[in-house]
Amino acid sequence: MQFTAEQFDLLKKQLNGLKERSPFYARKFEGIDMADVQTQADFEKLPFSEKADLREAYPLGIQAVPDEEVVRIHSSSGTTGTPVIIPYTQQDVLDWAEMFARCYETAGITNKDRIQITPGYGLWTAGIGFQLGAERLGAMAIPMGPGNTEKQLKMMQDLGSTVITATSSYALLLAEEINKRGLRDQLKLKKGVIGSERWGDKMRARISDELGVEIFDIYGLTEIYGPGIGISCSAHSGMHIWSDFIYAEVIDPKTGEVLPDGEVGELVLTTLRKQGAPLIRYRTHDLTRIIPGDCPCGLNHPRIDTLVGRTDDMVKVKGCNMFPAQIEEVIKFTEGTSSEYQVMIEAINGRDVLTVLFETPLEGEEKTRCEEQLAAIFKAKIGCTPEAKGVPMGELPRSEKKTKRIFDSRY
Predict the structure, then answer these.
(1) Ordered strands of the 282-288 beta sheet
(2) Is this structure's pTM higher than 0.85?
(3) Are strands 282-288 and 239-241 parallel, antiparallel or unpaired?
(4) Residue 173 located in a structural domain
(5) Mind listing the pLDDT tens digit for each residue in 274-321?
(6) Is 291 found in the same domain as 328?
């Protein structure tokens, strides 16, 4: 994807004086005159930035404005290593609200809707982002936060929530609980805005069917505002990225070479208006592709495809590289499986042992056939044969946040 003239003008304003404003970029772009960046090729020579860079800049080395202009900080939800802290100016908060409101509008949500917000609040960007967008849109925000499913269901019924926002894991947990209690006809839910973790088609279909809602995938990361920088539309063919705020590239994760539209690689994002913590060529580690051509919905903002996974969530077993998306593909093509699975990888007597646990309503011989089919499809699609074990529906753990599915005890 190439810069438009408008995007390049915004980029040049973003780069102008950046080294003077930010100690982080003074080091990152040492020896580079930002005024020399005049073409697409010039831009593509700029070095990438990574989460490791932001951790080294802890706590506020990334800040590019005076302290008195910072109105808020957020931090990434990751639990490993030094946290990443991102400062926001008032304009950053307004821009984020504008993008998020646009996400809701793209999903057909209006100021007459009642939006129940279940993602977490606090340093994490999720809950407050969903609320910002709802308030900017003029919709009724119901700021529940995570957990307390009993109260979630009561508010959903009593307040007539029409939109549910959640991680896919918690949306599934709510869907199962609503189904179990026979509450669906007592609810007014019409749409679900789901984000923060990748998820497969079977899980999407279950949530949609059991809640009776149309689902929209929302995209974002704390380093780049938070959720709300992109969303799927009524065509459900990828997620539109708001190109007047964000420039997207897809690169070969090994070589760093920019790939043509349509080819899968690592998503790299550049902020075009961010003041508190601008990010230039930030490697997200998310694997996707830029979808070529126009979207049937009519929006002219570029689209990225459903995320394949992350460059850092690949595991290697018995000589085979595998991503969660591939395992979800196997689940999708195996008849009789539900959406929930866990992969256990162990080293036993010096060899790798791979076990796939999956939920199924089947029993006896039917379950055995399902296990055999899953193992065969896994072998055909990924290249190695697991031990497949069907377990009863609801047996695998559910999460109010993100669900961990791959457990590797070899190291």
Answers:
(1) 246-251, 265-271, 282-288, 309-310
(2) no
(3) unpaired
(4) yes
(5) 999 999 999 999 999 999 999 999 999 999 998 877 777 778 887 777
(6) no
